Amino acid sequence: MRVGDFVTGRALLAPDITGELVERWFHENPGFDTVPVVHPDGTIVGAVNRQRFLYMLSGRFGHALYGQRPIAEIMEREFLLVPAECDLQSVGEYLSTRANVNFYDDVIVDLQPGYGIAPARAILEALHRLSDQMRRDLAMFQSENRRLQVQAEARWEMISSLSHELRTPLATIVGYAELAEMVLDSDPARARAHLAKLRSGADELFGHIQSVLDMARAAAGRLELDLERFDFRSEIQSAVELAGILTRERPIQIGHLQPPDPVWVWMDRRKVRQVLVNLVGNAAKFTSSGSIRIALMREGREVAVSVADTGPGIPEDKLKGLFERFERVGDRSIEGSGLGLSIVKALVEAQGGRVSVRSTVGQGSEFSVYYSVTDQAS
Amino acid sequence: MKILYCDDDHRMLELVGEFFRIAGHEIMVTDTAFGLTKQVASMRPDVLLLDYRMPALSGDNYMRVFQSTPAARHTRVIYYSAEDTVRLGELVASTGAVAFIPKSTMGRGLVAEVERILAQGEPAAV
Question: Is the predicted pLDDT of residue B115 greater than 70, yes or no?
Fold first, then answer.
């Protein structure tokens, strides 16, 4: 077995070398007072001091105790703390200058700068506790960090999307105001027409703000319902008319299906209407040709509404989280992106309902809303 | 000046169209990016005013199609969008558009801004 290697002018011992061989090595190499003990992978695991080592060997039972065993197994040692950035040569130099050194020092790489000596048991226990805790903390921090990054990106996308939704009607308000101003004296009738459109843009903006507030209230569990009794079919009729208006210049067939008899419900009508406006608006926006079908069905105490289109459809991997507020990164090329579906989910759930979507890329999508309803005030 | 304006919002199409016509420019509008390259090739506009957030085919995706179309090379693309301006700046740099105008710029201000951008130099390629 080779007793020592020389690396950068300093001897290195393998940890499984016995005390006898170390003793012989010291005799053959009188210029060395201390040798680092190095694991085959290059890690410094300890250091042996000539003076202390020979003293221990010469004591009673010294040779039997220390000469026959691998040096890494010899007990009564203390631990040397060295900073993480300390290289092998620096450790050797430091060891060779220490006074009253111990027989054998395990070298512990410390993350904090500075040297020091501490009792072995305390260091070991502390080190184990620290490393276990650090591993757990690190894993937790990494996981939490990833989650927060995803959430921050999604929040940013939501704010960006919200800002976009608000800026566009605001731009039209500014535009119609300017147009009205330009023709106010020369063509008052035209100015009035522009002002009517300005009012329409303002109403839309107000609607957006109201929806966002509703969504925030629903998330905080503070959404209030303004219940009234109405025939659900009237809202379906309005949705069909809206679909016709939104798609009037495209080859899109608007179809609807509803029961022949009134479907009396006791619900918040404005919120039902907002849900239908969002679903129909979404279908109209993404369908260039084909059809949009709106259906109302009543089964027992449940009312089901569906809006099906022949738009581009949604890839399967994008369906998950489509209705979530902060979990999804917005992508306007995907049907249902933006805030519309988040608001739909919030408004539907506020009335005890649920939402679902089925979609096939290249064929279209179908969004369904289910309400558990009564036609009586409770 | 010949302008082609693409936006999925019909009121924006009406308004922007009106302001450019009042200013004496020739403008065509379309509510979808599908078929836009064909329109650019036939109309050969000086400026394509392009909304960024459009359903199904967003402005940056369209730009990939646009850049590979030789017939569109004489046309300058300006993003006209309500998108965050930092993102618009990045899009201009990465997609080959010449500028962006935020949608907070409207009416005669918009017309003046497009005229100013167009007056800055010759088209990139003819």
Answer: yes
Residue B48 parent element (H or E): strand B47-50
By three-state DSSP, how is residue A100 classified? coil
ipTM: 0.82
Q: Which of residues 30-59 of B touch A (CB under 8 A)?
A: 31-32, 34, 53-58
Integer Cα distance of A57 and A50 in angstroms: 11
- CB atoms < 10 A from the CB of A343, how many? 24
First to last CA, chain B: 16
Q: Are strands A264-268 and A116-118 parallel, antiparallel or unpaired?
A: unpaired
Which of A174, A332, A335 shows the shortest C-beta gap to B54?
Answer: A332
Least confident of A188-197, A245-254, B60-69: B60-69
Rg of chain B over CA atoms, in angstroms?
13
Which residue in A167, A175, A249 is closest to B15 by CB distance? Answer: A175
- Residue A337 is predicted with a pLDDT of 46
The torsion defined by the Cα of A211, A212, A214 and A217, in degrees rounded to 10, comes to 180
Residue with tokens 């089901």: A304
Residue A5: per-residue pLDDT:
39
User: Buried (b) or exposed (e) across A116-149, using 16+ Cβ within 10 A?
Assistant: eebebeebeeeeeeeeeeeeeeeeeeeeeeeeee
pLDDT class for A286, splitting at 50, 70, 90? confident
Q: Strand (E) positions, chain A?
A: 5-7, 10-12, 34-38, 44-49, 78-83, 104-110, 116-118, 227-231, 252-257, 264-268, 290-299, 302-309, 354-360, 364-372
Tokens of A141: 């921090």
| Residue for token pair 């519309």 | A340
Helix axes B10-22, A120-183, angle to 10 degrees: 50
How many helical (H) and strand (E) elements, i.e. helices and strands, does chain B have? 5, 5
Give the orientation angle of helix A120-183 with respect to helix A188-219, to 10 degrees: 160
Give the one of B18, B58, B103 whose C-beta lies nearest to A168's C-beta. Answer: B103
Give the global pTM: 0.57
Chain A residues lying within 8 Å of B8, measured CB to CB = 285
